[in-house]
Amino acid sequence: MKHCTLLVAALILTFTNIYAQKQVETDSKKKSTTNGTEKADAPAALNDKIEFKNGTNAIITINDEGSAGSISIPSGSAPSDPSGKLYNYNGSLYWSSSALANNISHYFSAYFTQNLTLSSNTETQLSVFTEFFDSGNSVHNDGLFLPSTGIFTVPQTGIYHFDFSVTWKVQTTLPQSETTESPVSIIIKHSYNDHGTPVEKFYRLNHFVHLSNAYDNDIFGENNFNESVMYSANITASTNSTFSFFVWYENSKTLEIVGGNSAATTTVSAFKVN
């Protein structure tokens, strides 16, 4: 009887170990399946990062940043039940339906570095700026605005206010009694991706610049003077879309854009409204 009791105990222990092992495997499988449908593959380590995938698409990535780490969550739709969940919706992070970091300020301001003579009937992109400040410099080495190209990259979806001020240096040989005007346009170009299709949208201010000697000869005795015009606009933009800045001029007379760090210079700035 004693031996039978020991045998039964041994059998119970053996089946208990087998059940426990199967339960571990079942629990592991449940983590990647729901109602028989595979939801996520096992994490895979590759190039100093760990990816959790749904099929071939990474749904979260843990990155090795050397002395630190980061987590990447691709942009997508909001979960059907967002309660207690962190997710990336349209380029912005949300926790339980509440957007995070809405109070973060994104802004930059820069001036055109040097004078530029415009060609007639040509749309000229302004590049080579010097920044006054850039909120992105504390996060990204290049900041939000790249001075060498004059391109602003949107860090977060929202509404942005732009101020684009252009100063013209008019040089002409018109008689003092003669005054003429020439059409110019200052242009903000918004480039973005709409469901895989590249899109370019232009915001334009048309203006007439005065070509005249009479005004400044009376005061300065020189054949040149400066005139400034500013274009302001509130534009809705998505994360990683870009903005660039152009000037168009129509006249055979010389027209020069004023650059340099002075009170009368060409500048561009933007900040996130909400």
Task: Walk me through this protein's architecture.
14% of the residues lie in helices and 49% in strands. The protein is mainly beta and 274 residues long. Strands 10, 11, 13, 16, 19, 21 and 22 form a seven-stranded antiparallel beta sheet that branches. Strands 12, 14, 15, 17, 18 and 20 form a six-stranded antiparallel beta sheet that branches. A four-stranded antiparallel beta sheet has the order 3-4-5-6, with no helix packed on it. Strand 3 and strand 4 form a beta hairpin. The longest helix is centred in the N-terminal third of the chain and has 31 residues, at 2-32. The termini are far apart. Residues 1-27, 29-40 and 213-223 have low confidence and may be disordered.
What distance lies between the first and last C-alpha atoms, to the nearest angstrom?
A: 81 Å
Report the helical percentage: 10-25%
One letter per element, helices H and strands E, the order comes to HEEEEEEEEEEEEEEEEEEHEEEE
For the residues shown, what is the average pLDDT?
75
Count of distinct strands: 22
Low-confidence stretches: 1-27, 29-40, 213-223
- Given the structure, what is the number of helices? 2
Coarse morphology: elongated
Q: Rg, please?
A: 31 Å
Strand content: over 45%
Main sheet makeup: 7 strands, antiparallel
Determine the structural class based on helices, strands and strand pairing. mainly beta
